[in-house]
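This part of the workshop introduces the protein records we will be handling. Getting from the letters to the tokens is the skill we practise here. An example says more than a description, so a record of this kind follows:
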Amino acid sequence: MNVLMTILYILLFIVCLSVLIMIHELGHFTAAKIFKVYVQEYSIGFGPAIFHKKRKNGETYFSLRIIPFGGYVSMYGEGVELEDGVQVDQSRSLDGIKKWKRAIILAAGVTMNAILALHLFFISNIAFREQQLYLRNMTVEVDSKAAAAGLKTLDVIALDSEINSDVDSWHAKDNSSLHLLDSKATVTYQDDSTATAFAFIDVSGVKDYKNISINKFICLYASNEGKVNYASPITPDNNFKSVLIDFKTVTEFNEKDVAISFESHPILVEKDINGGFEDIGYKFYHYIGKQLNFGEALGKSFVDFGESSTLIVRALGTLFTKETWNSMGGIVAIGFQSTSILQNLGLGKYIYLWGALSVNLAIVNLLPFPGLDGWQLLVLAVEAATRKKIPNKVKTIVSIVGLVILFAFMGVILIKDLITYVF
């Protein structure tokens, strides 16, 4: 049964990914047809064709290829060699139409991805109840370590980033599933040696948090010169003895409900007999909010679109930093994480995730890098500004070099994913 479910999850992932690609390429295809550009092939995937056919009296082949992670629309005028016996007037080539029409064709793919994202966000918002995780008002069990440390039910727990502003850039504050508790937790090993670590609450991959102890969600990462090292998680293995975590609570808010005063509650969390962190009697709960009406769902969909766009732009802006590299993932990472979200958070969050991925696909394709739509738009803009056509040979060489770099980068990410998620 587990093998069958794994196969079904893989097939579902491939179908969802193919839909994103199909919609993107459909934008190029539809715009090209509107402007009567000759389209020789509309393909989902790369490599050998599983399906390759055109309608009777049609001119475009529709293909489904064996490698599903991509697609293309081949148009006359962009290096496409016509079939034997096929003659097409130059006015139907991509170079033969006006530049503004070419720009629309090139931008149609990302436009379709943006429209798809809004639809997916709307479905997620209108068809499923809004879910909120309350990490702040905690429940404390009587005669527990949490109670002994002075914690009380309905105390508002404080995240360390609220107290130490310099910590903000060191943790995944844009990852709503990872919340920093203590940047100076002390880990003690069996030989009584100690080390400073970052203590987080990691709530990813769990559907119902009601009355579940916080110990099930504690995760530790090594501290490297005062900064969190996500590549070095600390687990309660045989060498681990305990960790001293300072659970902070808010004692005062200002008139704008901003926390301004805090209280410390250090608790020594030891390893339990099952090889995890012991239950300290500190629990939190999950709240399922109201069903959104049409207007609320529509408005939230645009908010979701804006937030997703902001996140990917920020990630691209810090692409070559260590923090972004550690959290970066490719096809394998998306497959594992999307499956985890479907299993644990339900269909609504799964649909939302694919909306966010559609936004990512749109923005990444707008980058002015050879092989992407943004590069072709940049070339078109330069040619329009200079009124000179860049030689095809130059464009071809630059495109090939860019694609080699792009695929090499994707290969590195794939290896990183395999090491992280498989090996």
Observations:
- Confidence is low (pLDDT under 50) at residues 165-175.
- The radius of gyration is 26 Å.
